[in-house]
């Protein structure tokens, strides 16, 4: 997990892929955290991405660095609405409180990846897979 987190920290904008009906949908994301030895992400419940993940929880993210190295992470999204997880999300990225609060009426949906698989690769053909 350390290698995965390190790459995400060093490359904080990643692209989150879902399925909308039979079409792929990709958008930039930036929130992740490690909690209870799991890799978590979050999205607003008001967003199309949330409805897409509810309908089909198979997701994938990808990001790359300037050295020609990238990571792809896939798994099955499992939503976690516990107060402890919500508190950890706001602690990890305090600016989320400005978006998701009683005044705005918006809520965040936190989820972790089950059956996670991370693939590290580069333009030289190096490849490593980590299951988590």
Notes on the structure:
The protein is built from four helices and eight strands. With 132 residues, it is α+β, with helices and mostly antiparallel strands. The termini are close together. The model has no long low-confidence stretch (mean pLDDT 97).
Describe how the helices and strands are arranged.
Elements: H1 2-10, E1 14-20, E2 23-29, E3 32-35, E4 38-44, H2 48-55, E5 58-64, E6 69-79, H3 83-92, H4 96-99, E7 108-122, E8 127-131
Antiparallel strand pairs: 1-2, 1-5, 3-4, 4-7, 5-6, 6-7, 7-8
What structural class do you assign from the helix and strand content?
alpha+beta
**What shape does the CA trace take?**
globular
Strand content: over 45%
**Can you tell me the CATH architecture?**
Roll
- The number of distinct structural domains comes to 1
Classified in CATH, the superfamily is Electron Transport, Fmn-binding Protein, Chain A
State the share of residues found in helices, binned by percent: 10-25%
| Strand segment count | 8
Based on CA atoms alone, the radius of gyration comes out at 15 Å
């Amino acid at each position: 997990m350390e290698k995965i987190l390190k790459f995400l920290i060093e490359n904080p904008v990643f692209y989150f892929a879902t399925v909308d009906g039979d079409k792929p949908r990709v958008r930039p994301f930036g929130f992740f955290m490690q909690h209870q030895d799991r890799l978590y992400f979050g999205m607003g419940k008001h967003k199309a991405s949330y409805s897409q993940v509810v309908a089909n929880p198979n997701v994938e993210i990808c990001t790359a660095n300037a050295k020609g190295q990238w990571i792809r992470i896939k798994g099955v999204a499992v939503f976690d609405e516990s107060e402890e997880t919500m508190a950890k999300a706001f602690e990890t990225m305090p600016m989320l409180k400005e978006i998701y609060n009683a005044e705005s009426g918006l809520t965040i949906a936190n989820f972790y990846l089950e059956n996670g698989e991370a693939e590290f690769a580069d333009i030289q053909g190096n490849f490593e897979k980590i299951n988590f």
